Amino acid sequence: MMAVFTGAIFLLPFYLELVRNLSVARAGMILLIPSIMMMISGPIAGHAADRIGSRKICLQATGIMAIAFFLFSLLGDVGAFWFLLSSLALMERVSASSSPPSAA
To answer: What residue spans of the chain are helical by DSSP H?
Structure first.
Protein backbone atom coordinates (compact mmCIF):
# COMPACT_ATOMS: atom_id res chain seq x y z
CA MET A 1 0.00 0.00 0.00
CA MET A 2 2.78 2.43 0.82
CA ALA A 3 4.55 1.80 -2.49
CA VAL A 4 1.44 2.83 -4.42
CA PHE A 5 0.95 5.83 -2.16
CA THR A 6 4.56 6.92 -2.60
CA GLY A 7 4.30 6.55 -6.36
CA ALA A 8 1.12 8.62 -6.44
CA ILE A 9 2.68 11.39 -4.37
CA PHE A 10 5.82 11.32 -6.56
CA LEU A 11 3.84 11.65 -9.81
CA LEU A 12 1.30 14.16 -8.55
CA PRO A 13 3.41 17.32 -9.17
CA PHE A 14 4.01 16.25 -12.77
CA TYR A 15 0.30 15.61 -13.23
CA LEU A 16 -0.62 19.00 -11.82
CA GLU A 17 1.94 20.92 -13.88
CA LEU A 18 1.95 19.03 -17.19
CA VAL A 19 -1.60 17.70 -17.48
CA ARG A 20 -3.59 20.27 -15.50
CA ASN A 21 -1.33 23.18 -16.62
CA LEU A 22 -1.03 24.63 -13.14
CA SER A 23 1.81 26.89 -12.12
CA VAL A 24 4.56 25.51 -9.90
CA ALA A 25 3.38 27.72 -7.02
CA ARG A 26 -0.22 26.53 -7.30
CA ALA A 27 0.86 22.89 -7.55
CA GLY A 28 2.96 23.41 -4.42
CA MET A 29 -0.03 24.83 -2.58
CA ILE A 30 -2.10 21.80 -3.55
CA LEU A 31 0.66 19.51 -2.34
CA LEU A 32 0.38 21.10 1.10
CA ILE A 33 -2.88 19.20 1.58
CA PRO A 34 -1.18 15.87 2.42
CA SER A 35 1.03 17.51 5.05
CA ILE A 36 -1.90 19.30 6.65
CA MET A 37 -3.97 16.12 6.71
CA MET A 38 -1.04 14.24 8.26
CA MET A 39 -0.72 16.87 11.02
CA ILE A 40 -4.42 16.61 11.79
CA SER A 41 -4.99 12.87 11.43
CA GLY A 42 -1.76 11.42 12.81
CA PRO A 43 -2.24 12.25 16.50
CA ILE A 44 -5.92 11.33 16.35
CA ALA A 45 -5.10 7.95 14.84
CA GLY A 46 -2.40 7.31 17.42
CA HIS A 47 -4.84 7.99 20.23
CA ALA A 48 -7.49 5.81 18.58
CA ALA A 49 -4.97 2.98 18.18
CA ASP A 50 -4.27 3.10 21.89
CA ARG A 51 -8.00 2.91 22.69
CA ILE A 52 -9.33 0.54 20.00
CA GLY A 53 -6.30 -1.38 18.83
CA SER A 54 -4.22 -1.08 15.71
CA ARG A 55 -5.63 -4.08 13.83
CA LYS A 56 -9.11 -2.60 13.35
CA ILE A 57 -7.77 0.76 12.28
CA CYS A 58 -5.30 -0.71 9.79
CA LEU A 59 -7.93 -2.99 8.22
CA GLN A 60 -10.38 -0.14 7.86
CA ALA A 61 -7.67 2.15 6.47
CA THR A 62 -6.69 -0.41 3.84
CA GLY A 63 -10.25 -0.62 2.55
CA ILE A 64 -10.70 3.14 2.42
CA MET A 65 -7.28 3.54 0.76
CA ALA A 66 -8.45 1.22 -2.03
CA ILE A 67 -11.41 3.55 -2.57
CA ALA A 68 -9.09 6.57 -2.62
CA PHE A 69 -6.83 4.93 -5.22
CA PHE A 70 -9.89 4.10 -7.31
CA LEU A 71 -10.91 7.76 -7.17
CA PHE A 72 -7.42 8.73 -8.31
CA SER A 73 -7.74 6.38 -11.27
CA LEU A 74 -10.74 8.42 -12.44
CA LEU A 75 -8.72 11.63 -12.74
CA GLY A 76 -8.16 12.93 -16.23
CA ASP A 77 -7.01 16.11 -17.91
CA VAL A 78 -10.41 17.73 -17.42
CA GLY A 79 -12.80 17.44 -14.55
CA ALA A 80 -13.76 19.04 -11.31
CA PHE A 81 -10.91 20.49 -9.33
CA TRP A 82 -12.72 19.72 -6.07
CA PHE A 83 -12.65 16.03 -7.04
CA LEU A 84 -8.85 16.13 -7.23
CA LEU A 85 -8.57 17.93 -3.90
CA SER A 86 -11.02 15.67 -2.09
CA SER A 87 -9.35 12.52 -3.48
CA LEU A 88 -5.96 13.77 -2.34
CA ALA A 89 -7.30 14.70 1.10
CA LEU A 90 -8.98 11.30 1.50
CA MET A 91 -5.85 9.44 0.44
CA GLU A 92 -3.63 11.31 2.87
CA ARG A 93 -6.09 11.14 5.72
CA VAL A 94 -6.26 7.38 5.42
CA SER A 95 -2.50 7.13 5.09
CA ALA A 96 -2.04 9.27 8.19
CA SER A 97 -4.60 7.15 10.03
CA SER A 98 -2.82 3.91 9.24
CA SER A 99 0.77 5.05 9.85
CA PRO A 100 0.77 5.47 13.66
CA PRO A 101 -1.14 2.24 14.40
CA SER A 102 1.04 0.15 12.09
CA ALA A 103 4.16 1.52 13.78
CA ALA A 104 2.88 0.57 17.24
So the answer is: 2-14, 24-30, 32-52, 54-73, 81-103
